[in-house]
TrEMBL record:
SUPFAM superfamilies: Nucleotide-diphospho-sugar transferases
Protein name: MobA-like NTP transferase domain-containing protein
Residues annotated as domain MobA-like NTP transferase: 26-128
Organism: Sulfobacillus thermotolerans
Pfam families linked to this entry: NTP_transf_3
Amino acid sequence: MNQRPAIVLAGQRNDGRLASLSAFQWEAEIRVGGRALVEYVVDALRQSGRIAPIVVVGPSSLPLHDVIWAPVHDEMFANVISGLDCVGDGPVLIATADVPFLTPEAVSAFVDAADDHYDVVYPIIEKSLVEARFPQTQRTYVRLVDGTFTGGNIFMVRKEAVLRSRTAVTELLEHRKSPRRLAGDIGLGILVKWLIGRLGIEDAQKRVAQLLGIKGQALIFDYPEVGVDVDKPQDWEMADRLLGNGQSAPASVQQP
């Protein structure tokens, strides 16, 4: 079986919505069910048997072993580049550190399903699957002609394609807080189709290719575990209950 390298993005400082729950400096360190968030992700990657090596973009103080450490930067895309600098050309799996429900089976299925002919493969999960498995989770969904989906927290990229599109991706990220500029980037036609419920997966893929100069695939994926992350207090409460025994220390007293 083919193995792919993987990059785990664990460089998010704990200064957002989870800061009230824990005194840890990094979100990846926060304990869920008695373990650091990032441990669940790295274990799922390793136990899948489909991933090697594992590069972690995060502080070396994280409770991990047998991984390659990459320098942390302030911007997410800079952290992606930092991780890519540690691997060779070709497909590489990227995962965020806040998906503790990730399983070896989901990782293996995604590696098998991701078509190497695409520069980027991004899993999307149908709303009904997520709500059936995690009825209490609150996710952001997008209604398309093909269904109503949320995005996953793992994706497959070709290193050379990401580096080639670096300028365009950086511009989009810079515009993300300006609806007017972002709308200009995406295009009026695409926005109108989305607003009236006529946008399809194929439309979105074509627009990504035009914007970034890369060939992307939105892959309908049947593993809701990849679509549920922990980025707000209610997520933590659900994850701690499902992954632990309900006996974890209250998040408000979690200490490094």
